[in-house]
Each structure stands twice: as C-alpha cells, then as structure tokens.
Design a protein that fits this description.
homodimer; Aminopeptidase; Alpha-Beta Plaits; 15 helices; 15 strands
C-alpha cells in the first residue's frame, strides 16, 4: 500500500513539519494488522488485532514525546503537555474496523492527529494548552453490535442496563471481554473524563460529495442524528384475480406511494436532511395475493435536532394521510432516536478561513454516519474535517483516500487545532 | 354443516325437481372427507381423500341413473343418455381442495351438475342430447404444484416435457402417482376427449362482487388469462446517511412509484383487467442502505387476450419510463402467460334472460382465478356461473355459500343447460 500511496504524491505538501512519507509508512504498517487473505482488514473492537494496532500507534506516540495513558475501555490518550497543562484539546478517531473493512476509516483520524504532534516536534512548537491524541476502542461496534462503543464508554453513556444486555458473537459479556483484554468491569465503571475543552476529528467522507466537487477536504457542519420510524401499512389481502381494481385495500400500493413521495419531504426541513427506506417486507408476499401489510424502516437524519424532529413529524403525517386517503390502516412508531451534533458556527468559520488560505473551495457537508465525535459532542464542542473518499466507497477493501488528500487533511487539522490552542 | 345450511333455507326454492335438502346432505357428506382437526378439509389431487369423495359422488351418480366412466387421469364422467346420443353437453368441477380448504370450491359445481340430472329424473325429463356430470382431478394443483391438472390432462395439454418435470412433495413422479392411484402412465398418455359440444361450470365466486351487490348468482363473462412479468429496478446502493437526497439512484423509490401508478393502468384497457404486485423483494434490504435493486412479480389478468396483452405492454412501458426518468436500470421479462377464455355473447345473453326471469339482476363479472373451464374453453365453448361467496373468502375453512344461493345456482344452471339441449 505504501507504494500505491507514494506513487502520485505531491511532495510539495511536505511543509510545516508534516511528512507525507511518514504518514504513508504508518498507514501501510497498520494496514498489515488483521489483513485477510480474501482482501480487506478485520480488526474488531477488543480483538488482538485492534490491540496490536493500538500498540503500534502507542510506540509512535512515545517516540513523538507523548505521555500515553489508557482507560478501562481500552481508549488510548497520548498527551503532549502545553504551556498551560490545566486543560487540553483532543483529536483522534479509532483503529478498529468492520469485518473486511478498509485502511482509512478511523486510522486516518488517529494518524492525522499524531502527525500534528510530529509536525510540532519538528518545528519546535509548544502549544499553549495541552494536546491529546486519542484512539477510541470499538468504534464500529463489531464486538457487541453496539456502535461508537469506546467513546460512549469514555463519556459514561453506557449504563448498567446496556451493560447487562451486551453479548459478543461468542456469548461473552462485557466483563469477560474486558478481562480478556486486560481490564475489568470495576475499572470500566469508574472511567473518568479527561480535561478536554474541545475535540476535533479528521475522517474520510465515506460519500461522494467532495469527489464530485473535486475537493480534497471538506468542513463537516454537523453529525446527523439518526432516527428510525417503523411504518406498517395494513390493508386487506385478496385474490389478485378476483378483486376488481376499484375494490382493493392494497397495502403495497399505499407503501409504494409513501416511499416514492418520501424523497421530496427532507428538503422541506433543510438541505442536509435525508430520509431512506432501505428495509421493507411485504406480507403475505405471494405473487397472486393482494398485499395485506407492508412493514418498513424509515431512516431519518439531520444535523439539527429541530429539523430532524420536524422531518419525523412530516414523514409520520404523510404516512397517515396516504393511509387515510386510501382507507387502509397505518401504524408509525419510533424505534430509535440519536441526538444530532451540529458544529458551532465559530469552528466552521475558522475552517472556512483555513481552506480559503489553502486555495481550497470551502464546502460544508453533513456527516450522515455516526462518529466518536458524536458522543463527545453531546457535552463538549466538537468539529470534524472530511477527506475525499474515492468513489465514496467505505467499509470495503476498496476504501481509498490519496496521500495528497490525507496530507492536506493533516494541514487543515493542524492549523485548526493551533487556532484552538491560541484562544 | 348440514344444519348450518338448512337453518336459513327457503324451501320455496324446492321446485322443478331441485331439492335443497338433498344438496345440503351431499355437501355435508363430502365435507367430512379429509376434515382436519384444526379446521378445514384437505383433499389433495390423487389422494385417498379425493378418491373417497369421487367414490361418494359416483354412488349418487349411479343412483340417479348415470353411467359412470373414469379416465386415466382420474377424471369422472357420469353420463345420462339423451334422445340423440351422438353428442353431449357437460357440466361439473372438482372435489379436491387446497390444504385446509373449504367446502364449496369445486364441490358445489359437481353437486349442482348432478342436481340437474336429479331434477330431470324427478320430473321425468329426458334431454335431447346426452348429458355428462364431470369431476376433474386435482384442480387445485396441490399434488404437483401444477394447477387445473385433471382438465389439462383430459384436454391433452400435458406434454412429455411437463410430465418429466412433475414431482410431488414426496418425490414421486407422475407415473408413480398414477400407479398408486390405480392408473398408469401408458393409459394416461392415451386419454381421449369425449363427445362434448359445450361445457358449463358452476362455482363459488371467491370474491365479493356479488355479495356487495346483494346478488345470489352472477354471469361470468370470461376467465382471465394470467400473465406474470418479473420487473427488476436496478439502482445504486449507498449509505443512507452520507448520500444527499439529490444524488441517489434508489431502486425502491422507483419501484414504489411504479407500484403506486400501476393501479391506474388496467382501466385504460378494460373494466375487467387487473394488475397486482403481491411479491416484492428489496436488496440488500438493510435499514441504513439505499436499495440497490427491487425485484417484483406483476400479476396481470384480463378475460380478453388483446386487452390483457395491451396491458402487459403498458405496464412494461411504465416501468421503463419511470426507470429512464430516474436514471436507473430496469429489466422486464415475461415468466408465464395463460390464454384468457372469454364467454361468447350468446351464452351471456341466455344467462341474462334466465336471471331476469328469476327476478335476479343480471350482473356480469370476470373470473380472475383459473378454473377447469379455462382448459376446456381453449377448444370448446364454455360458460360459468358464480354463486355468492360470504365475505369473498375462499381456500379457507371459512369459505361459505348459503344453501339458498347454492340452490339458486342449480336453478340457473339447469335452465341454462336445458337451453343448450334444445339447440
């Protein structure tokens, strides 16, 4: 992978202490941990592979002069003391992957944060506040089918009820997994937040917007809060041959109209809102039986809670009005609702200025996917920077971000953190 | 069941030799063969239960003075010789059922045809032409998952290729099933059509139209020919959070629009045409993944081949135009196409006159489901009469037609057959 990264690298990006070759070597080194013969890498949360990747980064942290601590959830904190060591700015991401995942999701954010410290070391810069490079455990949630688990644990959002419900694929509970990992449930329950006042995360986009606009880096204007509605239309089954068209209560015709109208609703509330039906089941699902019921999940997201919740209302109303017009039943129930985390105006403006200075068109885009920043952002200000993803592909061995784009992301992250240091 | 039938019976309907009590007793007797402890009856084609039901009817046929023959497919023919024994008029249906089926589907048509002969016996009427009461085997196709099997066999429509493909649930082929039943494949391949010039079938509606119009009996204007189109919309999968609404190729949005517009297409070609999507599958069907493909079966029927085929074209065009507008792919392929059997004007007019004389509003309705008449109708003129179905329910233990409606159906069938006898 290193050669692939280096081949088209523009060494003109090596300035201010940032070194593309070093970043390429580190991306390469981590890409070899958990590599699968069938392609891709697998480093599930709390696995030996995730631990090896963390240990590799810990070594680099120490070489860069950082003091490393871990908490009982396996989260890693590499601290560079600033002139004022009473508070700190943090940046990082994760090194675990989905099964057969790629080499940039998470890893770029960790290495970019570390590269900022490396650059400072080269240039002899000591930040005013302290700086922490962070590796969160188990962001993908592959271990317990429970996403952003390390950052949730760090923030103290994993309560006893959730702990009791956790089981991994082998039937191990959290206590057993932690003990295998070299920690304990007692320590886990005693995890303390650190002295951060701000958290920044660099991440690959996992979408195509930057690529379509030919931009290496973009400003995340918020992390969308996902909410799921379960919508079920209930009509009446009937013989597909013996029931005249004007005497039907066809649940799928209602559902079809709902799904086809759904795409026009998000823009009513905001330009960042999205609504998707990805999962749908017809019952009884016989080719010659008029569908009695159609059940689906509507995935609804926006970066602002008010618009997201307004969208939930509008979607519910639309389902109900279609059902009423067609004289069939409908039930709409919310099955999950995550709080969106918008990025404050001041951080977006700072990033605009940085990108303008770098002659990059400043473009804002929402993060539709969840990230560790989402948990931190529930209590602290956060910001995110996205690096362009080739073809928008992620969670896949084909996931790719060019070294030029990775390094540009580091430059933006470094300048942005320096602004926070000087506040 | 007999008491339930008799309870609300209007004995004023017992005239012209037709006897509601006899019909109720016979419906009752057959309903006890293959009765399930969980409700309903099960008399699959070529089963012992179907055979017992046939033998019961054969006994009644003989008592009524009919000469009984069977063919190698197990079809039963009870013949009453007429003044001219060189040709015959036939009527009947079937006594097999779907698993856990009801007591009227098929059985009513057989007993109604027999009751016509009984009535003639009482009144001393000898028809001009000969008359055959028919029981077709395995109409429901439960044995080989291949419907209207007995009448297809009778007509010679089961070719060697189809024979080679037939396997029942226990893995038996047609030869083995026939031998178990007391027949042979050699005799089966030598089945000859009889001297019929016309076939009439009484059947329960299996729909709600007569009930909604408060009518005991209706005139079938044709047996719809079913055609299936497999339609697959192919878009592009994507992250439900990271793909803006205006950059999607969502196969389900296209499919939803198609399904919701489908209901308006049949009326363009005729008042009897129907189109239904009963079976639909989304892929990959993950709640947070934009659907990549949606595959469905469109069931399309009409009683005229030209309008049915025009409907197939219109539906195909609509699928293609929606895909084109939405910039996604679509494939449409025909997977089966059965010829519709319209009923000739002269028979419908005769039935109109009969119903008018009985002070019943003459209403025509299509048969959306297939029936044995469909096979006979490919070579001979046929007609069908529907009896009102309670709540339109069929293929279900709750299937019900009142004795009044059953007897009224016999009156109509008798008068109608007498008209054919005198032509």
């Amino acid at each position: 992978m290193k050669n692939l990264l280096i081949n088209d690298y523009n060494t003109g990006l090596d300035y201010d202490g940032i070194d593309g070759g070093r970043l390429a070597e580190r991306l390469e080194a981590i890409s070899k941990i958990g590599v699968l013969p069938t392609g891709g890498v697998s480093r599930p949360g709390f696995s030996q592979e995730e631990k090896l990747a963390k240990e590799l980064v810990i070594g680099w942290m120490k070489e860069a002069g950082l003091t490393v601590e871990t908490d009982a959830a396996g989260n890693v904190f590499g601290r560079l003391n600033g002139d004022d060591n009473s508070q700190s700015i943090a940046s990082g991401s994760h090194v675990d992957t989905v099964p057969a995942g790629g080499n940039f999701d998470g890893v770029l954010g960790v290495l970019a944060a570390l590269e900022v410290a490396e650059a400072w070391k080269v240039s002899g810069y000591t930040p005013k506040k302290s700086y922490e490079v962070v590796i969160f455990s188990d962001e993908e949630g592959a271990r317990f089918s429970s996403g952003v688990f390390g950052s949730r644990s760090y923030m103290g959002f994993v309560d006893d009820e959730l702990i009791a419900s956790l089981k991994d694929n082998e039937g191990l509970n959290l206590e057993e997994v932690l003990e295998q990992y070299g920690s304990s449930l007692k320590e886990y329950k005693n995890i303390q937040q650190r002295d951060w006042t701000f958290f920044a995360e660099a991440h690959i986009e996992q979408g195509k917007l930057l690529e379509k606009n030919n931009l290496p880096v973009g400003i995340v204007n918020g992390i969308a809060g996902q909410a799921w509605l379960e919508v079920e239309f209930k009509g009446q089954a009937g013989h597909a041959g013996n029931t005249p068209m004007n005497d039907r209560q066809d649940a799928l015709v209602a559902a079809g109209r709902f799904v086809s109208e759904l795409e026009n609703i998000p823009k009513i509330v905001s330009s960042t809102a999205v609504a998707t039906v990805g999962k749908l089941a017809v019952s009884p699902n016989g080719a010659n039986v008029i569908p009695e019921s159609v059940k689906m999940i509507v995935d609804i997201r926006d970066i602002h809670e008010d618009t997201r919740d307004r969208l939930l209302e509008l979607v519910t109303e639309r389902a109900e009005s279609i059902a009423k017009e067609r004289n069939i039943g409908v039930t709409v129930s919310g099955t999950s609702r995550v709080k969106p985390v918008p990025v404050e105006e001041v951080y977006k403006q700072e990033l605009h200025n940085i990108l303008n200075d770098l002659n990059i068109e400043a473009t804002e885009l929402p993060s539709g996917a969840g990230h560790d920043s989402m948990n931190i952002g529930l209590e602290l200000p956060v910001a995110m920077i996205f690096a362009r993803s080739k073809d928008g592909i992620s969670h896949n061995p084909k996931e790719w971000t060019s070294l030029n784009d990775c390094v540009m992301t580091v430059h933006v992250l470094k300048k942005f953190i320096e602004i926070q240091m000087n506040k």
